[in-house]
UniProtKB/TrEMBL annotation:
InterPro entries: DNA-binding_RecF, DNA-binding_RecF_CS, P-loop_NTPase, RecF/RecN/SMC_N, RecF_2. Its main location: cytoplasm. This is DNA replication and repair protein RecF. Belongs to the RecF family. One of its GO terms (molecular function) is single-stranded DNA binding. The gene is recF. The keyword ATP-binding applies.
Amino acid sequence: MLAQLSVSQFRNIVSAELTPASGINLILGENGSGKTSLLEALFLLAMGRSFRSRALKHLVKKQQQRLTVFARSMDQTPIGLQYDLQSGLLIRLNNAPLKRLSDLAAHLPLQFIPANCHQFFELGPKYRRRMVDWGVFHVEHSFNFHWQSYKKALQQRNAAIRKYKPSNEIALWDTHLVKHGMKITEFRQGYLQQLVKEFLPLFRLLCPELDTASFMLRYQQGWNKETDFAVYLRENIERDRALGYTRSGAHAADWSLKIDDADPYEMLSRGQQKLFFLALSMAQIKLLAAQKEITNSVLLIDDLSSELDWHHQNTVIETLRTLPVQAFISSTNDDLSQLLKADNEKKFHVKHGVISEKVKHAINTNPDIVE
Ligand SMILES: Nc1ncnc2c1ncn2[C@@H]1O[C@H](COP(=O)(O)OP(=O)(O)OP(=O)(O)O)[C@@H](O)[C@H]1O
Ligand SMILES: [Mg+2]
């Protein structure tokens, strides 16, 4: 959760200073004003990467040399990030240079919900793995160790395949892949089962019209479920050599949450698919709070109003109020500010990259006072 934020030379934002609310923050403005850019700056600060550009140079304001994002979390820890076109990325957490990006992610558990999140179950498995791994990373402390070790072993095995090494040399890496891959699989499966439990009541709240639907979690571990991983790797080594890489394993896992035995995109309207994804992200927040007492989550929702009618936008905001989360919600719809009410909620307007805090319209209960 963030108490203070400054962004400079980031896309079309020259310089912005914000004191966000601890609850809901609405980011309102016209197309191209800089709303997504502000969310992107927050995402960069938490993850050390962007959700829309591979190369960070695109994030630096045109004609400028470097961007900076600085924040203070609620416990006053300073987090500073600078990307310079010449010297690259520099991140400081609590005034010390950051050693590992995972330290940053652990400090600021942040999820991003893109405007097109309704396509989540149509996208490649990479996105679904990323979502579950985000959650597992926060609740299982050894997950990062197993994942990094797995990735290293996989790179080595693939390098051996590409160098046409004999099969027995390639298979040297299998023990590591199996050891860490099994652990990763166990973590993911356990986590997903818990996630579905949290998801169901949230989805029913957001989408009561589907409250009789049945849900089933499908997890594909990344290799034939009937076969032991070690045996599977051994038996498929010739196939991997022909392909030039290790095809199966925890890195190829996928999952789905079937609704009445269909994939969400086969069954749900676009708005319902968006609510489905929102409920999954909200379930992650609840799970983190329940399992690890993590109550400083940040949720970025880009363009809440797309695909959702007024009533459902209201339900999303109402539901967010019940969760331990600081939300930044962008929209082109100014009317959304009518939904704000609590003290810990704020609205910001963005125009040509300039961000200003707006006073909420208090509901005037005294007819003698004209605002
Ligand atoms: N490196 C850059 N330097 C300057 N401006 C940039 C840079 N990259 C993108 N922009 C511009 O920044 C502006 C803000 O883009 P952004 O995606 O944040 O808008 P938005 O408010 O989210 O709009 P929409 O409602 O259409 O999603 C756009 O006009 C874009 O062309
Ligand atoms: Mg946008």
